[in-house]
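Why this split exists: single-chain examples teach little about how molecules sit against one another. For that reason, every record in the complexes split bundles all components of an assembly together and asks for one structure covering all of them. Below is a record exactly as it appears in the raw files.
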Amino acid sequence: MNEVQHIEVNEYHDYIKSLLEEGYEMMMDLTAVDWFRKKEPRFEVVINLLSLSKNLRKTIKVQVPDENLTIPSITDIYPGANFYEREVFDMFGIVFENHPELTRILMPDDWIGHPLRKDYGSGRIPVQFKNAPSVD
Amino acid sequence: MVKNKENSEDLDFWATNSEEGGWNISSTDEGSQKMNDEESEQQIKIQTGSDVVDDYFIEEETSEDERMIVNMGPQHPSTHGVLRLQVELEGEAVRRVKPIIGYLHTGMEKTGEELTYLQGPTNTTRMDYLSPFFNELVFSLTTEKLLDIEVPARAETIRILMTELNRVSSHLVALATGGMDIGALSMMIFGFRERELVLNFFEKTTGLRMNHNYIRPGGVAADLPDNWQKDVKEILKIIPEKLKDYDEMLLDNPIWQGRLQNVGIITPEECLAYGITGPSLRASGQGWDLRKMQPYSGIEKFDFDVPVLQESDVFARWRIKVLEILESLKIVEQAMDNMPKGPYKIQDKKVTPPPRKRLDESMEALIHHFKIYTEGFKVPEGDAYVAVESPRGELGCYIVSDGSSKPFRMHVRGPSFCNLQALPIVMADSPIADAVAAIASLDPVIGDVDR
Amino acid sequence: MYSPDNIFTTTIDKAVRWSRTQSMWPVTFGLACCAIEMMAAGSAKYDLARYGMEVFRASPRQADLMIVAGRVSQKMAPVLRQVYDQMAEPKWVIAMGACSSTGGMFNNYALVQGVDHIVPVDIYVPGCPPGPQSLMHGILTLHDKIMAGEINR
């Protein structure tokens, strides 16, 4: 029921367009995975499409090249991708070309860094308990 | 506050005459004040084929000076949490809307990478706080898919029972807050009163009113309490009666009808283009329900209907929630009557810790118990996406495992996040008074949007 | 009915404190899960109106009490402070729930680890989320605190 397809960046936009014509009407999910020090290239964008008419799902994985973190936007095919691409930009720093408004969506506008990257710490603040010896 | 003297002539009256002196409109302390590009929005409208204009509204082009940008939120745009809307008004008419989110961003996807699979539901349950069981369920189902295990029949049926009751309580809150937004204050009191019934049963079973952490990978945390049928029977008896009251009060009420009918229309094409799912999709004439189309957790064994309405306005989205509550109660009744006997957790020692009473007798059991709760269990490499039908639409969970006991990446596809994108098209070219009705009908939960 | 025979003596302190406790209007500051419990506390079963404080005001200018119900993110923190500054004196703050008290289970980059970093907090209500009863207990404790405290804070 769920088919997985790997695709190159330069074919990606046309391929998604052909899938819409094939009958995948809805884009369900768009996210990214940071394979920091585990895989090359580092970032992978994962798109999940759904066809209501055929009751099928399709997962598309795109490797984003390390030297140039850009990938075409699919907002012109699925307008619903707008928020998802902004979220991925905010959290991973992947730039979507031709996106109508590529700004931070979840974090404040002046935030530095991309939180869901593996080399971005979780920002844990050590908790000080009463009468406990200091941990450091 | 950035003082910008060079552009001070361009600033409007308020900015130059305030105590603070002039500030740059594009960057106040409330963040960016820029609306989207008008052309790109127009382009999207053409693609989705949406040029639906509410019939009572007269389209008239006026000059830019008569337009004004108003911020709704983030403190209080109706009762739906910290949503902020930038609304471009022309008199009473909304021209353009830009939803701004992130005011409740909790970093749950990052925290999820630090928690083991057994601790994971604690995290996900706090995302969509009106339907916590669905969040736990989708996380557990994804983990089970990666582990390639099947939970016992009793656990599956308990899951269905709890999630469908949760759909009832969630829709009741949606009806209640929706009523309050539009001005039917008694609806608020009624909705929360009936919700208490369901929450009492949740509290009895799981120990908490909300954020239960009850459905876990491998089954559920505890068995149902003694005499649970009595409580469920009470719910099944009382709630349909009260729903009749709601109908009497609102369904045939001319004020309610006049206020909501033909307001906030979303066409089926827009639903598909924007990925809108759940009751909003079904109120637009698409009978898509994951419980029927891609069943999970053994829900295909139950007999129920999927209500579909064609009107696609706010009234239909309100109505469909009432109908869905009735359908969910049907499932609850069947689950109650056909509750299988047997274990409520999988009997796989890799996943399930030994029972508490074994710890006093066996050293190995103690070690095993300790290991599972501190280290967690290892999950094979791979990735999985599982979706369930939450009260707001498709709730999906995407987990990437690297073979350790913690998810390498955990992503949740929140239905409200996607549904919120419809706000600009729902609200555009309608009076500002309908804006609140439109927000309420989409029923966004900001915890689910921002995560 | 006006009757010149009835006299009642008290100190001005006591009268002021009493009047403050009896109509303490909260500002709606629902953020997350706790907001739902706060709404439940105001609805039929728990009925916050018994304590003269069911009127949740949307405008901070009309409110005396801010119930910070839910997790406060870094993006929300300036807004919260602004709402607090807009409230008229005297004002009180209740931090409802684990997240607004300490950051709760989300010790990460996105959340303010306790709302007391931003505004002074009078009462912390524990729980995740605290039930309506806990919230009411917090409110009544605040009443006790006001009755015992100074009038010029």
